[in-house]
Amino acid sequence: MNRELIVNVTQSEISIALIEDKQLVELNTESPKSNFSVGDIYLGTVKKIMPGLNAAFVNIGSEKDAFIHYLDLGENFATMKRLVADIAKRGATPNFENTRREEELNKEGKIETALAVGQPIVVQIVKEAISTKGPRLTSDISLAGRHVVLVPLSNKISISQKIRSNVEKRRLKAIAQNLLPPNYGLIIRTAAVDKSAAEIEEDIASLIAKWESVLEKMRTQPNPSLLAGEM
Question: Which one of 32, 144, 145, 167 counts the least CB within 10 Å of its CB?
Fold first, then answer.
């Protein structure tokens, strides 16, 4: 018996055909993005509160509801929560740089004081689904670029510990301070060493544009939905 396995990959699907003696005996097709990727940002819906775990399950469209712990909400969660609610209520994308900050999240707090069933929530995947467990989430959103990582709603500039030169650290921090708009923080990656201010500015501008696209999609797309893929 002559057997052939033929695989055809396109942007929309992957097809695998088993041929025996020139006859098709089996055909399987699947989406190339069958798994949810770490870094993807979603507008999800809180499905279940688990006080005993101080956590919640969130529907982001995966087969199994995703999981978020209270401590993974992030210190700026109250501001993010109000931002999402304002976008839903007003049907308009806000001026993010003028967003008023709420008090930072109490690290000793309880999940039921922060979330409610049916509430929309912006989340990012930090761990993909495994076996019977859904993806692990955070609401402390970050967007990774080539030289920097942009952190919306932060006001901190951090520098990779792998950068040893104090002179270079001061140079990079000064560049970041001059370029960052209000309500954005930054993590400067090792790859930023010896890069010009123009190169870093281009990276920051690209990431800010991505975040603004996320904000726009919050207004226009239903939840659950993908807001940005593979950050």
Answer: 167
Report the b/e string of 124-152 with b at 16+ CB within 10 A. bbeeebeeeebbbbbbbbbbebebbbbbb
End-to-end CA, the chain: 47
Q: What span, in angstroms and rounded, lies between the C-alpha atoms of 199 and 189?
A: 13
**pLDDT band at residue 130, thresholds of 50, 70 and 90?**
confident
CA distance 52 to 186: 34
Give the pair of three-digit tokens for residue 145. 């670029």
Collect contacts of 100-107 with beta carbons under 8 A, ≥24 apart: 101/76, 101/153, 101/183, 102/76, 102/78, 103/78, 104/75, 104/76, 104/78, 105/73, 105/74, 105/75, 105/76, 105/77, 105/78, 107/71, 107/75
Q: Which two tokens stand for residue 130?
A: 């495994």
Residue 222: predicted pLDDT: 86
What's the pTM? 0.81
Which residues are paired to 17 by β-bridges? 6, 27
Closest CA to 207 of 190, 189, 231, 183: 231
Average pLDDT, integer, range 34-43: 82
Q: Can you tell me the distance from the alpha carbon of 151 to that of 4, in angstroms, rounded to the nearest whole number?
A: 50
Which residue has tokens 């798994």?
35
> What is the reported pLDDT for 3?
64
Give the residue, 68 or 22, on which the prediction is more confident. 68
What's the gap between Cα 24 and its chain centre? 42
